[in-house]
Amino acid sequence: IISSLTLKQKRHAGIPDPANRLCEQDIAQLLAEVARDNQLLVHAHFNCMICSKGQALQQAVNFVESSLFSLGIIPSRNAYNQLELFRASLPANASALKKYDLALLSAKAAACLFFKERQPGSEDSRFLIRFTDRRGIPISIDPADLPMSSGRISNRSKFVLGGSGSGKSFFMNSLVEQYLLYNMDVVIVDTGHSYSGLCAYYKGRYLTYSEQEPITMNPFAFKASEYNIEKRDFLKTLIFLLLKGVNGEVSAVEDSIISSVISSFYALHFSGGEAKTELNFDAFYFYSIQRIREICAQDHVGFDVDAYRFVLRKFCLGEEFGLLLNLATDSSLLEEKLIVFEIDAIREHKVLFPIVTLIIMDVFLQKMRLRDHQRKALILEEAWKAIASELMASYLVYMYKTVRKFYGEAIVVTQELEDIISSPTVKNSIIANSDTICLLDQGKFRDDYTKVAALLSLNETEQKKIFTINSLDNKSARSRFKEVYIKRGSTGEVYGVEVSLRQYMTFSTEKPEKRALESYLKHHGNYQDALDAFIYDLEGSDLSLTEFINQVNTHS
Ligand SMILES: Nc1ncnc2c1ncn2[C@@H]1O[C@H](COP(=O)(O)OP(=O)(O)OP(=O)(O)O)[C@@H](O)[C@H]1O
Ligand SMILES: [Mg+2]
């Protein structure tokens, strides 16, 4: 073949008009590739068959031609041997192709048209989450076990990022609903009432923080068998958080003094000696002041006991935040399947927001230990901001590690790009421990995507996929949906979050929709009946959803 090519090249060179020159150059390039890369030359034939009626046929032909053209391929349209070509293109008939229908190509060029990709299908697993593919066809993927066992990911934790209104909470609602159907334990810390519908539907516990009824915990009370170094470190983190705030700095001396105080407090308590006291913040507070004084006197080290006494006093019973750390946790919480902590009321509160978030995380860890046979998920919506600091870093790393070991996952949901990029804590603890990244519409961040891409290790191919989110022409004949890109390990795919009307009404965070459903709730008392009645009336009304909601809201 090579010598006949060389001959052909010479023949073209003999007649130096532009067309011949081009041919000659092509052959020269091909020969160079063969020589340099040891490329195999093959005879190939590709046949594109389109069948349709009338007008549509020409459109399809044009589309195929222009798509091929954009790849640098110019197809030839043959009219003289159509029957022959048709016969040859039937499976197993390729040998009937005549020489004049074969093109000489390098093996690489020939293979590039082999269509190895396929429409994505559902995964083979017993833990599947439903989405739709890009066309709206249902598809299920395993976000946890299968990618773990194949080594694609090494933890089940997830990081969810998207601009405001991009559908993060909606996606999480849909995910959590399916988790619940797998009998998973789910704890959510939310600040925007995004899970109230879901929680009501599945009869979970909805705990709202308010000044009259603060969420109370007693992280100081536990059994001797539960005491270990990690527990001590958690309490130490909590004490420093109370003392210094979330951005405080702790010296080595302070650190060892508090560690030693906690150890001796529990040693005394668990030894059952005369000092056996109740276990709560107050007991620790009074013990610690005395003990710190003793240590300082004994070892001649400095610790500002007066500041300690003064700052921490507000957490004692009878003081400003006295209930928070002294009243026992409702033990039924540890048995509950779905708990939503709604702490919107304190999201701007510098003292309470981080403390409450931290103690909720501790409740989750306790729950995890207690129900270690159960899958479980901790979901932090924006609340992560409260704890993203150096002081918390080691606790966060510890939390992620524990979650992984106990068949759990932590999911951080956020829209705040700047906070993530600028915080090394977030990077090293949250993102480094979340092998699955879920991205909703990233249009808002597009201008400065290199930073996000670097942070989340998104190569160029992945970025291209990401920017197709919600922008394909795939909306017709489908219900309302939004797309999400899910990256498990190093690569990801885009899926649709497309749900039924019942689910839509339950997951939606739009105020008018929530309000309309609430007025049904007032009449029916229970969420499922209210939802049924709402859908029944809507379907009987001949109105669109928006019109129907408007009517309900004006008449209620
Ligand atoms: N998959 C979806 N299908 C249909 N509607 C959706 C979908 N996702 C989001 N929406 C619509 O968009 C609205 C806003 O979505 P969502 O509350 O999830 O946004 P968000 O990203 O959590 O915003 P924020 O940052 O303000 O909390 C929803 O109330 C719903 O009406
Ligand atoms: Mg939200």
Structure description:
The strands form three sheets. The protein has a nine-stranded mixed β-sheet, sandwiched between helices. Helix 1 packs antiparallel against helix 2, helix 9 packs antiparallel against helix 13 and helix 9 runs antiparallel to helix 15. The radius of gyration is 32 Å and the shape is elongated. It is of the alpha/beta class. Helix content is 47%, strand content 12%. Strand 3 and strand 4 form a beta hairpin. It binds adenosine-5'-triphosphate and magnesium ion. The site of adenosine-5'-triphosphate has 19 residues, from helix 7 and strand 12.
What's the CATH first level of the largest domain?
Alpha Beta
Tally of extended strands?
Answer: 13
Helix content: 40-55%
Largest sheet: 9 strands, mixed
Helical stretch tally: 23
Superfamily (CATH H level) name of the largest domain: P-loop containing nucleotide triphosphate hydrolases
Instruction: Using the 3D structure, state the CATH architecture of the largest domain.
Output: 3-Layer(aba) Sandwich
How are the secondary structure elements laid out?
Blueprint: H1 2-14, H2 18-37, E1 41-44, H3 54-70, H4 82-89, E2 103-106, H5 107-111, E3 129-132, E4 138-141, H6 145-149, E5 158-161, H7 168-181, E6 185-190, H8 196-201, E7 205-208, H9 229-244, H10 252-270, H11 281-299, H12 305-312, E8 338-342, H13 352-370, E9 376-381, H14 384-387, H15 390-405, E10 408-414, H16 417-422, H17 424-430, E11 436-439, H18 449-455, H19 460-466, E12 481-488, E13 491-498, H20 501-507, H21 511-524, H22 527-541, H23 545-555
Helix pairs in contact: 1-2, 9-10, 9-13, 9-15, 10-11, 11-12, 15-17, 21-22, 21-23
